[in-house]
Amino acid sequence: MKEISVSRLGRRCVGMLLISFALIGIAQDDVKNSVKVVQGAQTVGGPVVPVHISVDMFNLPTVTAWQPGDPIRVKPPRQISPPQSGLVTNPAPRGFDQDPLLAAQLEVAGPIDGAGIETPILNQDGFAQSGSPSDVIADVGRQFYIQVVNATPVRIFDKTTGAVVMTFELSDLAAGMGTGCGGGIGDPVINFDQLADRWVLSEFTGNSICVYVSQDTDPTTGNWFVYEFISASGTLPDYFKIGVWPDAYYVGVNDVFMGGRTNYAYDRDNMILGNTARPAQVFVSTPELGGFNFQLLQPADLDGTTLPPDGAPGILMRHRDDEVHNTTGIDPSADFIDIYEFDADFDTPANSTFTGPFPIAVAEFDSDLCGTFNFNCVEQPGSGVILDSVKEPIMWRVQYRNFGDRQQMVGSFTVDVDGNDLHGARWFVMERPADVTTEGWTIQQEGIYALGDTTHRWLPSLAMDQSGNILMGVSATDPVANVFPSIRYSGRLADDPLGTLPRGEFSLIEGSAPNSTTGRWGDYASVTVDPDDDCTFYLSTEYNETNTSSTRFGSFRFDSCGEVSEEFFMDGFEDIIVP
Question: Average pLDDT of 494-517?
Answer without folding.
Answer: 95
